[in-house]
Amino acid sequence: MSMLSYDDAQRMPGATMYATDGDKVGKVTDVYIDADTKVAEWALVDTGFFGTKESFVPLAEARMEGDDLHVPYSKDQVKDAPNAEPDGELSQDEEARLYDHYGLTYTEAPSDSGLPAEATTGQAPVEPMPVAAPAPVGRDTSGPTTDDAMTVSEEQMDVDVVRRPSESVRLRKHIVTEMQTVTVPVTKEKVRVEREPITEANRDQAMDGPDLSEEEHEVVLTEERAVVTKETVPVERVRLDKQEVTENVTVQEELRKEQVEVDDDTRRTEEL
Q1: Which range in 44-53, 83-92, 127-136, 246-255 is most confidently predicted, on average pLDDT?
Q2: Quick one: residue 95, left, alpha or beta (phi over 0 = left, psi -120 to 50 = alpha)?
Q3: What are 24's strand-pairing partners?
Q4: Would you give the end-to-end CA distance of the chain in angstroms?
Q5: CA distances for 195 relative to 199, 202, 213, 224, 228, angstroms
Q6: Residue 106: how many CB atoms within 10 A of its CB?
């Protein structure tokens, strides 16, 4: 039979307790240390579904095998142990009833074994196990135990805004040709034949010259024509300027976080 060590006491909370016949009793939830000897004296084990029942078991003849705690009592004997308040300290009446239940003799005299001085179990006495301080509730299976609490962390998004060049804009001019149509009024002369009868007023002019002759008169006609001239004139000034506009942009990122769950063989897994 292996003896309990200081390290055993440190990792006992959370261990699975097995009865003398190999039946699984439940998970160890706490360890009670004797106030005088500083030796681990009692283990508090969860024996009911969903934490409805907890029983105290003597540790004087218990042994650790890996992560399992073996006690020299049957599962029914542990489950039927008298009720005691798990308030951090057992009263004398509670210890007396518990020792009587497990077939041990109770006395108020102090001892160095974790059992009262007159308590007997029918087996050879076990050397005392020194424990400097109460063991933390639970242990770190992934590394050295630090304290009695687990730190839960999560990733959080921190969105910042940085200014970066987005594009380059140039102002440039070039020449294009387009057709423009303008309508303007123009005047021109047309020939018109006028006839007047011979009268006393114009008879002298009409009779001036030979009786019969060949003659030719000429008239010059004029007209206005549209003449286009072009000149270059400034019409406007153009420059580049910048202005800031604000718009909402939605960003998405996958974030990881840790979750805590209680995994107990005697009760269902509960996620916290």
Answers
A1: 246-255
A2: alpha
A3: 18
A4: 39
A5: 12, 13, 19, 28, 40
A6: 16
